[in-house]
Amino acid sequence: MRRGVDPVPTASGRLLDFASDQVVAYLLMSALSAATPITNRMRSAVINRFTDTTAAAISMAFLAFVSLALSAIVSGYKLSKQTYM
């Protein structure tokens, strides 16, 4: 980056960006879906600060998933509009 040259070419960079957005979004959604039933079960037994913070963390993870999904849509659009020749 010091010489003004990108370490990854533009075409490969767009593909890498799209793929990494997809992978991170799916991993985030998987963690979210694993944590939700456990938190609901814990909240049915006792409501304390821990269960409140886990519920808040789940909602923030869902918002992060939405932003990553939008990023993947933008990356996919850039990838589809790329010229190869």
From TrEMBL:
It is a multi-pass membrane protein. Residues 9-66 form the Casparian strip membrane protein domain. The keyword Calcium does not apply. One of its GO terms (cellular component) is plasma membrane. The chain crosses the membrane at residues 23-42, 54-77. It comes from the Eukaryota. Keywords: Cell membrane, Membrane, Transmembrane, Transmembrane helix. Its main location: membrane. It is found in: Cell membrane. The keyword Cell membrane applies. Belongs to the Casparian strip membrane proteins (CASP) family. Homodimer and heterodimers. This is CASP-like protein. It comes from Oryza glumipatula.
